[in-house]
Amino acid sequence: MEPIVIYTQPDCPPCEITKKYFQEKGIAYTEKDVKQSQIAKNELIKKYKSYSTPTVIIGEKVITGFNITAIENELSNIHNEE
Fold first, then answer.
1. Strand partners, 63
2. Which DSSP state fits 65?
3. Are 29 and 6 in contact (CB under 8 A)?
4. How far is CA 70 from the centre of its chain?
5. Fold of domain 4-81
6. Strands (E), the chain
7. Is 68 helix (H, G, I), strand (E, B) or coil?
8. Do the bridges between strand 30-33 and strand 4-8 make them parallel or antiparallel, or are there none, so unpaired?
């Protein structure tokens, strides 16, 4: 499966919902806290052109916010490719 990265920050309810979604599905992800890491913040802004959290990266797909439809579509695309 493609690596999944979630850019988060503290006190972000949609971030918590996003992480809980992946945990409940048993899907591994890497969390990058943009408040704790300037490197993560720079990646989010410069590489992915996003200024909000959560931002979910699945392979090359960038999903801003907790967009369950986009997340599930991308996850199903990955499963279909395997």
1. 56
2. S
3. yes
4. 11
5. Glutaredoxin (3.40.30)
6. 4-8, 30-33, 55-58, 61-64
7. helix
8. parallel
How far is CA 67 from its chain centroid?
Answer: 10
Is residue 21 within 8 A of residue 71, CB to CB? The reply is yes
Domain ranges of the chain: 4-81
pLDDT digits (tens, 9 = 90+) for 22-75: 999 999 999 999 999 999 999 999 999 999 999 999 988 999 999 999 999 999
60's tokens? 């090359």
Q: Which amino acid is at 76?
A: S
Q: Which letter does DSSP use for residue 26 in this model?
A: T
Q: Is 14 exposed, middle or buried (0-12, 13-18, 19+ CB in 10 A)?
A: middle
Q: What number of helices (H) and strands (E) belong to the chain?
A: 3, 4
pTM for this entry: 0.92
